[in-house]
Amino acid sequence: MQRRNFLKSLALTPVMVAGANAKSSDSTKDGKKEKISLIDSSEFSKTKGKASIINLDKCDGCKGYEMPQCVSACKEKNAPRFPEPIKDIPQYFPRKIYEDYSKNRDDIFRLSPYNWTFVEELEIDSKKVFVPRRCMHCDDPTCQKICPFGIIGKDDNNAVNIDEHYCFGGAKCRDVCPWGIPQRQAGVGIYLKIAPKLAGGGTMSKCDMCADLLAQGKKPA
């Protein structure tokens, strides 16, 4: 399926990717009742194999806010885990270009090691659509299979995680990801102690579905 057709299908149909026990509830709008899909909080902690519900018909990119609330919540929750590179990042060999987003930490309009989700504004068939972009936590993640160091895991809640403590930043996970989700930051990670000059060093970062909160039976931030 072409990218445009894929996005078109997302725009016209609410994304019904959800964990079990999703229920319906009545909501009143302009004097009319409409059905909205909710996750029963009392059952949330008992459900294995979590995922997200994103209703693209309702998402408006959080108009009136400085940044989309999903982006704000993600940044606030994960800030302690954002990479802190050394001041003088060594140049690679043979290619001298490295990825350093540490000076653009406030950029919320793209994925980076400091912004694990962003909201993309699209226009499809004259309709404005806001699409949150972050890790999809695939059922059969190719990134996990391709990682040469075996540091990408998937837990019982379907959260796909990168262990940044042992990540070398090879970026093969990004290369095989259909959406190019994982992002690399140079100047941080185990590669500095083992092979600081080899091209491609750093750590990869992405959304982990708030795996620590899910493990406690709580909802993601």
Total E-strand runs:
8
Total helix count? 7
Low-confidence stretches: 1-29, 33-39
What characterizes the major β-sheet?
2 strands, antiparallel
Integer-rounded radius of gyration: 19 Å
Strand order of the largest sheet: 1-2
Write the layout of secondary structure elements.
Blueprint: H1 3-12, E1 22-29, E2 32-39, H2 41-44, H3 69-78, E3 118-124, E4 127-133, H4 142-146, E5 152-154, E6 160-162, H5 172-176, E7 183-185, H6 191-194, E8 203-205, H7 211-215
Antiparallel strand pairs: 1-2, 3-4, 5-6, 7-8
Outline of the structure:
With about 220 residues, the chain is α+β, with helices and mostly antiparallel strands.
Model description:
By secondary structure, the chain is of the alpha+beta class. The protein has seven helices and eight strands. It is 19% helix and 19% strand. It has a two-stranded antiparallel sheet. The two termini are 32 Å apart. Residues 1-29 and 33-39 have low confidence and may be disordered.
